[in-house]
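Exercise 7. Given the components listed, write out the predicted structure of the assembled complex. Treat all entries as one system.
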Amino acid sequence: MARAGLTTERVTLAAADLADEVGFEGVAVSAVARIFGVKDASLYSHIKGVQDLRARVAVLALAELADQVAAALAGRAGKDALVAFANAYRAYAKEHPGRYTATQMQLEPEVAAASAAGRHAAMTRAMLRGYDLAEPDQTDAVRLLHSAFHGYVLLERTGGFQHTPRTADASWARTLDALDAVLNNWPPV
Amino acid sequence: MARAGLTTERVTLAAADLADEVGFEGVAVSAVARIFGVKDASLYSHIKGVQDLRARVAVLALAELADQVAAALAGRAGKDALVAFANAYRAYAKEHPGRYTATQMQLEPEVAAASAAGRHAAMTRAMLRGYDLAEPDQTDAVRLLHSAFHGYVLLERTGGFQHTPRTADASWARTLDALDAVLNNWPPV
DNA sequence: TCGAAGTGCCTAATATAATTAGGCAAAAGA
DNA sequence: TCTTTTGCCTAATTATATTAGGCACTTCGA
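Answer.
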């Protein structure tokens, strides 16, 4: 029999693609094994189990997302950077729904620390350099931005914005205007 | 044999409590059956299946959340109302992690329409009356607020805020200050 | 080039979960 | 009391996760 050529990376990648196709809940050991034309048990030499497989997809997605955002951010500053960051973030979530869902996983502390999660915060801070914010306001602003982006993307997906004629794109643009405005005019304590 | 006295409501409530205890993924027909000391198959007279059970938990949670927020909002206006709304929202998410997760479910259109999801938007609009926003800015503001609250609560839960000494509570308070500021100073087109 | 070691995928077995079909007994109504 | 309905059960099927142990292919040293 020809070997399937399984690797932890290849398995993870297949799982990530599967997640984007059928949703993150659909990421099962058996489903991935089916893709490779291999028995379920064969995957256990490469991954510890479903939880491990899913966590790997999460780590992959976090890294990809950080890459996309970093690329979009290159050479921009101020509102330009804010918009680029936000659009790259939202675009990734739309193109890779399953992967994006994976990023919501509760990762083990060590795994999370080793992941690209830290890069997000660093990039957001870099982006904020165009605004005049000292600590701890900067940290608070990072959290507000991240929350707004994350929340928007999720609500848009679950259809929370469908009961009004206003398009999600239009509100998104204005939301970025609003966030830019607060960053330029951060309330004093 | 004494009957367990199963009811769709009782089953849903048990599932909701279970969700808060072990997480929404842990809501299984078998687990709920175990709670009632009943066979799995017995639950199928009351619910259509796991998906149906989970959707019911989602609808319950949406209603409870709307109630909590409505109560907190009563008699308040302006920033006072904003803070009350936000705190009630976040408190519910913290006290009922499983139920809150359930609210993220993709509900069938008809179910979603019949649920309390609409009440949220209505309440948010009511809260915004203290600010001077015309359409479509009002809709955009509702979306920003909802996104920020939802995103904040989720990121806080997955531990996204743990890499900095700044507490989640402190940033939350400042985030509300910032949101109040934008609402008072919504950027012109 | 041959043989030892390691690796890759398989078979087999077990446990948990979801779901359907059909049955018996308890509760409710005439 | 008799009948109907309803509630929970048994039994069977299917899918998934996971572990243990085996055989064959690959690779690498001698």
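Discussion: The mean pLDDT of chain A is 92. The radius of gyration of chain A is 19 Å.
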